[in-house]
């Protein structure tokens, strides 16, 4: 097969591993900087051009779209879809998962466990918003934040009011969530490919830090999931329409709760912690499922 990896850098660990895994399985792999692609949006013959050459004859693409480049990245993915190329994650599913509020609303509709979450526009409604999630301590999240950036733990009601007023004063959209104290600064990353969890790890935050992101100094180790956690991760990915996803879960007193569904999950941490060749699992999925014009996103909203 001829497979394109849409990534800004060929040197990134995840991109490099996917290329290696594909080549080891006999496929022709090409890394394409999607920001350097341009498109001819023509009736009956849509095309994608890269380095002044039309990208043709690809059997599949693997999107590795950066969170800050979602708009243009998904436009390129959508153009490939218009050309009938199979994609590991479809453009609509990527966009859906990147909108944190929309993501939580869809997960809630499906009855998937979530932290109690509040969303408001006016600073006049702050007290009611805080009350909805059970009061302080609580977590405040920027809708546009990634890798733990823009996530604040407010330990008192006054601190929560001050942070919310500051964010809204900058016209930043925020979510307010209950603080899952019993998680003790740890979360679980479940890596879903197709309809199963192929690898998982527990991420533990540094002492004094409640965010467990590896980019913020957290540590990772292999973990055995419960059947409920496994089922929750698969259902969350399916709800977003994602075939390749990193689903982040907290262990709470009322069962597993989903805090994020990532459409371009990194491979480095999960492969090291779980000792699973996740890159090859993704290539295997493409081998079994790719077919021309096979786009099947039927999720409402």
UniProtKB/TrEMBL annotation:
<dbReference type="Pfam" id="PF18030">
    <property type="entry name" value="Rimk_N"/>
</dbReference>
<dbReference type="InterPro" id="IPR041107">
    <property type="entry name" value="Rimk_N"/>
</dbReference>
<dbReference type="InterPro" id="IPR004666">
    <property type="entry name" value="Rp_bS6_RimK/Lys_biosynth_LsyX"/>
</dbReference>
<feature type="binding site">
    <location>
        <position position="141"/>
    </location>
    <ligand>
        <name>ATP</name>
    </ligand>
</feature>
<keyword id="KW-0687">Ribonucleoprotein</keyword>
<keyword id="KW-0460">Magnesium</keyword>
<feature type="binding site">
    <location>
        <position position="260"/>
    </location>
    <ligand>
        <name>Mn(2+) 2</name>
    </ligand>
</feature>
<keyword id="KW-0464">Manganese</keyword>
<feature type="binding site">
    <location>
        <position position="260"/>
    </location>
    <ligand>
        <name>Mg(2+) 1</name>
    </ligand>
</feature>
<keyword id="KW-0648">Protein biosynthesis</keyword>
<comment type="similarity">
    <text>Belongs to the RimK family.</text>
</comment>
<feature type="binding site">
    <location>
        <position position="187"/>
    </location>
    <ligand>
        <name>ATP</name>
    </ligand>
</feature>
<feature type="binding site">
    <location>
        <position position="262"/>
    </location>
    <ligand>
        <name>Mg(2+) 2</name>
    </ligand>
</feature>
<keyword id="KW-0689">Ribosomal protein</keyword>
<keyword id="KW-0547">Nucleotide-binding</keyword>
<protein>
    <recommendedName>
        <fullName>Probable alpha-L-glutamate ligase</fullName>
        <ecNumber>6.3.2.-</ecNumber>
    </recommendedName>
</protein>
<feature type="binding site">
    <location>
        <begin position="178"/>
        <end position="179"/>
    </location>
    <ligand>
        <name>ATP</name>
    </ligand>
</feature>
<dbReference type="InterPro" id="IPR013651">
    <property type="entry name" value="ATP-grasp_RimK-type"/>
</dbReference>
<feature type="binding site">
    <location>
        <begin position="211"/>
        <end position="213"/>
    </location>
    <ligand>
        <name>ATP</name>
    </ligand>
</feature>
<dbReference type="InterPro" id="IPR011761">
    <property type="entry name" value="ATP-grasp"/>
</dbReference>
<dbReference type="GO" id="GO:0005840">
    <property type="term" value="C:ribosome"/>
</dbReference>
<feature type="binding site">
    <location>
        <position position="248"/>
    </location>
    <ligand>
        <name>Mg(2+) 1</name>
    </ligand>
</feature>
<feature type="binding site">
    <location>
        <position position="260"/>
    </location>
    <ligand>
        <name>Mg(2+) 2</name>
    </ligand>
</feature>
<dbReference type="Pfam" id="PF08443">
    <property type="entry name" value="RimK"/>
</dbReference>
<feature type="binding site">
    <location>
        <position position="260"/>
    </location>
    <ligand>
        <name>Mn(2+) 1</name>
    </ligand>
</feature>
<dbReference type="InterPro" id="IPR023533">
    <property type="entry name" value="RimK"/>
</dbReference>
<keyword id="KW-0067">ATP-binding</keyword>
<feature type="domain" description="ATP-grasp">
    <location>
        <begin position="104"/>
        <end position="287"/>
    </location>
</feature>
<keyword id="KW-0479">Metal-binding</keyword>
<keyword id="KW-0436">Ligase</keyword>
<feature type="binding site">
    <location>
        <position position="262"/>
    </location>
    <ligand>
        <name>Mn(2+) 2</name>
    </ligand>
</feature>
<feature type="binding site">
    <location>
        <position position="248"/>
    </location>
    <ligand>
        <name>Mn(2+) 1</name>
    </ligand>
</feature>
<dbReference type="GO" id="GO:0016874">
    <property type="term" value="F:ligase activity"/>
</dbReference>
<dbReference type="InterPro" id="IPR013815">
    <property type="entry name" value="ATP_grasp_subdomain_1"/>
</dbReference>
